[in-house]
Amino acid sequence: MYTFLYCFDNNYNLQAFTSIISLLDKATKEISINIIHSSMSDSNDIPKTILQHPKLIELKLFKFKKDELVFPNIIGKHISEATYYRMYFEKYINSSVQKVIYIDSDIIFLKCPLNDIELKITELDKSIFTLCAKTEHSMFANNLQKSKDLNIESLKYFNAGFMIIDVFKWRKEGTEEKLIKLQDSLLKKIEYWDQDILNSYFDGKYLELSDSQNYFIDLALDEINETNSNVDHAMSIHYIGKTKPWSIRGILQVNSVYFQKAYRLLSKNKYLIVNTVRINSLKILLKSIFSLKILRVDRPISFLLYALRSFV
Question: Which CATH superfamily is domain 2-209 in?
């Protein structure tokens, strides 16, 4: 059985549920899903579309115990403390689970990932490594100081949004305790939250996921370059960066359609729209109307109606 893990808070409930339903919809085998949440503790808060899905064999929901933990560099950011929860997953995952597949809430599955995951798990078993992840090749291209700050000698930096973790090795090596100590020593140098800590700790010692398993889409770059990423080969797409496919700015980019289509599997609503800065969102919407850019959006009339409702 494949065990998937999501960590999020109330700000990302619908986004995470959309990712989960996209996974279940594409899965060809039964899977288990574990959720570590900031406050949710009752599965009645999970959409029935997920709970009753034929590919879901079990869903376990855990309320995160914050205690006196510290979560650096989250004040005023678009990231919440929930991004750090994956560092502490071993307290919640059943002791019988040998492998866990961690997934960010802004990942949408376009194809079944299970065969590729099984191949990576086999490779992971034969290796000395604890996890599989995808390298962000440009991380140190123009910022070697960051590698020095994080003591990363390999100059390799992975994206922690999609990880296959060998739970047995993680526990055996006392990884959680070591990560906490490392966080304390890096406290003022942490920029990308727990991802920096994980990379500093593993320092290039991980197996590589394929591009198709964690295919990056930056909607802000799509907007600037007015080009669309080729996702034909992608198994799952990861909306990286600040511009998300549930914002008005993001929805106006063609590649947001994959998120919104998955959302419609979850809800009768045609669009999920979240406005964090309402004035800017309204300006972007009006500009798209006058420039006719709105016409390239999937279901433009529905989008306009839902966008207007989002300001009420």
Answer: Spore Coat Polysaccharide Biosynthesis Protein SpsA; Chain A (3.90.550.10)
